[in-house]
Design brief:
The chain has a two-stranded antiparallel sheet with strand order 1-2. The radius of gyration is 21 Å and the shape is elongated. It is mainly alpha-helical and about 180 residues long. The longest helix has 19 residues. The chain has eight helices and two strands. Belongs to the G-alpha family. G(i/o/t/z) subfamily. It comes from Liparis tanakae (Tanaka's snailfish).
């Protein structure tokens, strides 16, 4: 649905006039499917027709200009399998899922007798103020960014690219907070 919504803002037309009706039907069928918890055949057909449209494909190529899941093409290209009534997610399907992180998720694990705490923190600016307590007693920070997101726009500010090399503002924020915590 993100691609369909972006068509208007990016001023991209569908290659077939019938796809405009499909786009409207997509929203109606999606709402009903979400309520019922099923993936109806009509929704699958509409989605397949839209995904095959060259206008949609042009919009997909410009996905760095709007918010789109990295795995959208994977799922859309495999829609026939995913839309089956007896669908069981593969390991790849599960690995490619994404849930927006809000707040802080703490995971404990041990590797070669070393105990680690990993914090997955919400990446949005509004979430950053919640991170400060994660730095207490820290001896190392591994700062991870998605390589696939280097040229994508921020969800909260579509004028700004997410990963300014090397996410300079965020890196400085983290380092300065660590220095502040260690100050006498």
């Amino acid at each position: 649905m993100a691609i369909v919504k972006a068509m208007a803002s990016l001023k991209i037309d569908y290659s077939s006039p019938g796809r405009l009706d499909d786009a409207q039907q997509l929203f109606a069928l999606s709402a009903a499917a979400e309520e019922q918890g099923v993936f109806p055949d009509d929704l699958s057909k509409v989605t397949k027709r839209l995904w095959a449209d060259s206008g949609i494909q042009s919009c997909f190529v410009r996905s760095r200009e709007y918010q789109l899941n990295d795995s959208a093409a994977y799922y859309l290209n495999d829609l026939a399998r995913i839309a089956k009534a007896d669908y069981i997610p593969s390991q790849q399907d599960v690995l490619r899922t994404r849930v927006k992180t809000t707040g802080i998720v703490e995971t404990h694990f041990t590797f070669k007798e070393l105990h680690f705490k990993m914090f997955d923190v919400g990446g949005q600016r509004s979430e950053r103020k919640k991170w400060i307590h994660c730095f207490e007693g820290v001896t190392a920070i591994i700062f991870c960014v998605a390589l696939s997101a280097y040229d994508l726009v921020l969800a909260e500010d579509e004028e700004m690219v997410r990963e300014n090399p090397p996410s300079s503002d965020l890196c400085v924020f983290i380092c300065m907070n660590c220095i502040t915590l260690r100050a006498p």
